[in-house]
C-alpha cells in the first residue's frame, strides 16, 4: 500500500538540457518537501552540464544518462507549434528502469503541492485527461511498470505508426489506446496533473476546486524558468498575460527554486558563469550589455544584413510583432 516504504518504487523525470534540469531540481525538492517515501530518478541527456548533474545527484537517488531519442517529426510538431518536443521520445527510456517494479513519471515542468505517494496504488497506465482533448491522457504524469518487453514494443510502435503529435504523448495514447474507455481506475483525477491553462479555460472550476490541486503542470511553451524573478519583492516578471494565468503557482515554483536550488547551483558552478534568472544578477550584468540601439540604427543594421537574430530581432520577437499586427 502507499503508506509502506517501497524501495522498488520511484518517481522518474527527464531533462535533456540545463533549463529542464532546473525544473527537475525544483520537482525533486517539492517531492522531498512533501516527504515522499519513494526513490527519485532523473534521466538526463548528454547536454546537461556537469554542475547541473552534480546538483541533480544531491536531490535524486539516481541520475541516469540516456540517449536522446528524437521523433524528427517536424510536420506534426509544427502543427502543435512546438518544434522542440521531438526529444520527448526520450521519455520512453523510463520503461528500462527495470530495477523498480512500479514508477510514476513526472514532467520536469511539474510541481508537487502535497504528498502523492498514493499514486503507487494505481496500475499501468494511469494518467489524467489532457485538457485539450480529454479522451487522450496527458503524458506529463503517469503510472507505469518498467519492462524491457514494453519498451521494445513501444519503440516498435514508434517505427510502425509514429506519433500523431510528434511527441511522446501521441505515441503513448496510440499504444495504450483503450485508456479512455477500458478502466476508470486508470483515470487519475485532474488534481494530479492540473495544467495551469485550466485557470483560463474554466476559471469557475478552478476557483471551486483549484485549492485541491496536488500537482501543477506548467504545460505550454512558456515555462517557469522563462521568466525572471525578484526575490526581494517576491515578484515574477515576463510576459504578464501568461504570468497572470497561474500567478501563485509560478511564485511557488520561484520561491522554491530561488531559496533551495539556486544556492546549490551556485556552489556547483563555483567560478564558472551561471545565470539563475533572479533579478539582482540581471541588474549586475546590465551595465556589461551594449547600450540599446535607436530604431534608425537598427533599421540600418537590418538593411546591411546584420540583424540581431539572437536578441531584439529574434524569431520570437518578430513573431510577437506579427501577432500584434494581425490582431
Ligand atoms: N523535455 C526535455 N527537454 C526538452 C523538451 C522536453 O527534457 O527540450 C522533457 C521534460 O521532462 C519535459 C517533458 O519532456 O517536462 C515534456 O516536455 P514539455 O513539458 O515541454 O511539454 P508540455 O508539457 O509543455 O507539452
Ligand atoms: C504534452 C505533454 C507532454 C508531452 C508532449 C509531447 O502536451 O504535456 O508531457 O511530452 O505533449 O507529446
Ligand atoms: Mn510538461
From TrEMBL:
UniProt xrefs under CDD domains: GT8_Glycogenin (cd02537)
Gene3D superfamilies found in the cross-reference section: Spore Coat Polysaccharide Biosynthesis Protein SpsA, Chain A (3.90.550.10)
Enzyme class (EC, first level): transferase
GO biological process, one term: glycogen biosynthetic process
Pathway: Glycan biosynthesis; glycogen biosynthesis
Pfam family, one: Glyco_transf_8
Catalytic activity field: [1,4-alpha-D-glucosyl](n)-L-tyrosyl-[glycogenin] + UDP-alpha-D-glucose = [1,4-alpha-D-glucosyl](n+1)-L-tyrosyl-[glycogenin] + UDP + H(+); L-tyrosyl-[glycogenin] + UDP-alpha-D-glucose = alpha-D-glucosyl-L-tyrosyl-[glycogenin] + UDP + H(+)
One function term, GO molecular function aspect: metal ion binding
Compartment(s) where it occurs, according to its Swiss-Prot or TrEMBL record: Cytoplasm; Nucleus
InterPro entries: Glyco_trans_8 (IPR002495), GNT1/Glycosyltrans_8 (IPR050587), Nucleotide-diphossugar_trans (IPR029044)
Source domain of life: Eukaryota
E.C. numbers: 2.4.1.186
Keywords: Cytoplasm, Glycogen biosynthesis, Glycoprotein, Manganese, Metal-binding, Nucleus, Phosphoprotein, Transferase
A GO cellular-component term linked to this record: nucleus
Cofactors named for this entry: Mn(2+)
Keyword hit for Transferase: yes
Functional note: Glycogenin participates in the glycogen biosynthetic process along with glycogen synthase and glycogen branching enzyme. It catalyzes the formation of a short alpha (1,4)-glucosyl chain covalently attached via a glucose 1-O-tyrosyl linkage to internal tyrosine residues and these chains act as primers for the elongation reaction catalyzed by glycogen synthase.
Family listed: Belongs to the glycosyltransferase 8 family. Glycogenin subfamily.
This protein's name: glycogenin glucosyltransferase
Organism annotation: Chanos chanos
Gene that produces this protein: gyg1b
